[in-house]
Amino acid sequence: MIKDRSWIDAKSTVKVIAALTAAGIDFRFVGGAVRDGLLGRPVSDIDLATPSKPEAVMQAVQTGGLKAVATGLKHGTVTAIADGRPFEITTLRRDVETDGRHAVVAFTDDWREDAARRDFTMNALYAGRDGAVTDYFGGAADAMAGRVRFIGDAEARIAEDALRILRFFRFHAHYGQGALDTAGLASTTKLAGMIDRLSGERVRVEIFKTLTAADPAPVWQAMIDAGVMAHVVPAASRVENLSTMIALERALRLPPDPLRRLAALTGPPSADAAADLKTRLRLSNGAVNYLDSLARQDDRLKLVERGAFGRALYGAEPDWIRDAAMLSAVETAKPAPKTLAQLSLLIPSWVQPRFPLTGADLQKAGVEPGPDMGRLLGAIEEWWITRDFAPDRTACLERLELLRNA
Fold first, then answer.
1. Could you read off the pLDDT of 261-281 as tens digits, one per residue?
2. Residues 260 and 326 sit within 8 Å (Cβ to Cβ)
3. Strand 93-98 to strand 103-107: parallel, antiparallel, or no bridges (unpaired)?
4. Residues 6 or more apart from 404 whose CB is under 8 A from it?
């Protein structure tokens, strides 16, 4: 029985239930919502399964006054939007053909057949409106015990979709207790090369989800030992540094960040290394710029070590400077934890000081537009920064005259 049914009784969920019930459509909640509800964890995404065809589901949702989106009619999925919240409703399915990346499916009215095509026992759980759980493969017991176990033959499940290799480790990082399932670990080790068939985007999503676990370090080491990481990010091998970064995040009360943790695993990446990560994981330009910046903050990190936080943060992304300082602390034990704590506390309230001079001010003072103006403006701003932004406009204009007469 579901421990926390607040997500079932939520107004948005009740609206979806009402729309389906009014049309006489049988349904059950399925997957992560049931698993997390059973464990008493917060429920985010709510998925439903039904033996009814997707066209009938769309009609029921629309008749019930909700928005229906044909998310993937070919695969039986309709998304109902209630109070701005999406609910995926999928027709029961069975696999007709799989190639390790994609599956051809057929619809069925057999709940057990639908459950059998899922990856892990804890993800093949169904629940009715009353919160009663239907469990065909011992998934409830596995979820409660922290066992991430493939349904049926592990190699067969992986052969259907190579992404399940990464999902095996990701789910253990978030739900597992103790050692990884022996059969699952053996199969992921044997079939690790199948990861090469996957797109960088799919790999990135799984890797980043793994890295957001409370402590993914043991699982990451298991991925290295299994030969899995050799097909993902071979350079991400500094597991001790990952553990140190996790401890530092906790000390600074920062939420897990997958990019920051990835940088701890690889070390400060060079421009070439950041570009390689972009290719392997299909990272955004913003993510690559962030990673590249971590290796280019030596001058600012020296300011951080001296406690000159304002000067270190001026003209930069404050969070990037903090993360660069954290990575430096992981690598070299500098800056000290107390200094990092002070910097981290400052950043949420940091407002960048406004330089009191503009090009117009220099023109009024008789400086012609051009390279000389840019040089003078830059020199005055640098002088202003080194004095911790204290000089006002008058003092900056006096500095201008001093430079012009030098």
1. 999 999 988 888 888 899 999
2. yes
3. antiparallel
4. 367, 376
Task: Note the pLDDT tens digit of each residue in 24-48.
Answer: 999 999 999 999 999 999 999 999 9
> Which residue in this structure is represented by tokens 């464990």?
39
74, β-bridge pairs: none
Strand order in the sheet with 67-72: 67-72, 77-82, 85-91, 46-50, 28-30, 125-127, 133-135
Res 101 pLDDT > 60: no
Q: Evaluate the omega torsion of the peptide bond into residue 335 and state whether it is cis, within 30 degrees of 0.
A: yes
Tokens 């051809």 map to which residue?
Answer: 104
Beta bridge partners of 85: 82
Q: Which helix (H) or strand (E) holds 133?
A: strand 133-135
Q: List the structure tokens of 29.
A: 């909640």
| Residue 95: predicted pLDDT | 73
